[in-house]
Amino acid sequence: MSGAAMGAMNRVEFRVGAEDPLGYACGLLRSAVAKGARLLVRVDSRQLDALDARLWTFSSLDFIAHCRAGDPTEARSAVVLSTGDAPRAAHARDCLINLAEAQLPDWQDWPRVIEIVGADAASKAAARQRFRAYREAGCEPTTVELTP
Fold first, then answer.
1. How far is CA 21 from CA 41, 50, 88, in A?
2. 21-34 vs 45-57: helix crossing angle, rounded to 10
3. Mode of pairing for the β-strands spanning 112-118 and 11-18
4. 3-state class (DSSP) for residue 58
5. N or C: which end of the chain has fewer CB within 10 A?
6. What DSSP string describes 118-134?
7. Domain range for residue 78?
8. Is the entire prediction scored with pTM above 0.85?
9. What is the pLDDT along the chain (148 residues), one digit of tens a residue?
10. Edge-to-edge strands, sheet with 66-68
11. Cα–Cα distance between 86 and 9 in angstroms, integer?
């Protein structure tokens, strides 16, 4: 099946205007994990340590179980953090959450993609490029404007 045909089957959602994208991701992950979801979070390498630390300290009331891609606990972990161009859609993940600037090349392998976009001009410009790329691949992304 071609990428364009597959793109029509995928749900892609842009959540735009996050003042604190990592903090927003933590809240989203907490909600999704509470519902039993299994997720992969793709970040740029400069964000990996910061997101990992935030997930440990985000909430004093609940723990967001997570690990980094390639960790021996990856198959059991609800949330896997990954960098790079082609994280695997391994271990039956329900959703890819993208915090990276670039679009994931194999996004069509995912049933759902959530793009978290910061409030700054550079984040929005990179997101517009990704949005166009999804459309060119035959996918019609939805957009949710986040309010502060």
1. 12, 11, 23
2. 60
3. parallel
4. coil
5. C
6. ESSHHHHHHHHHHHHHH
7. 3-145
8. yes
9. 334 334 345 799 999 999 999 999 999 999 999 999 999 999 999 999 999 999 988 887 877 889 998 899 988 899 999 987 655 655 578 899 999 998 888 888 888 999 999 999 999 999 999 999 999 999 999 999 998 7
10. 66-68, 79-82, 39-42, 95-98, 112-118, 11-18, 142-145
11. 20
Q: Phi and psi at residue 109, in whole multiples of 5°?
A: -75, -10
Counting the structural domains of the chain, the total is 1
Give whole-number Cα distances, 139 to 36, 52, 60, 79, 102, in Å: 26, 31, 39, 25, 17
The two tokens of residue 37 are 């979801």
Of 135, 96, 142, 98, residue with least CA distance to 116: 98
In order of 8, 19, 77, 88, 89, the CA distances from 69 in angstroms are 28, 27, 10, 9, 11
Report the 10 Å Cβ neighbour count for 144.
12
CATH assignment of the domain containing 132: 3.40.50.10110
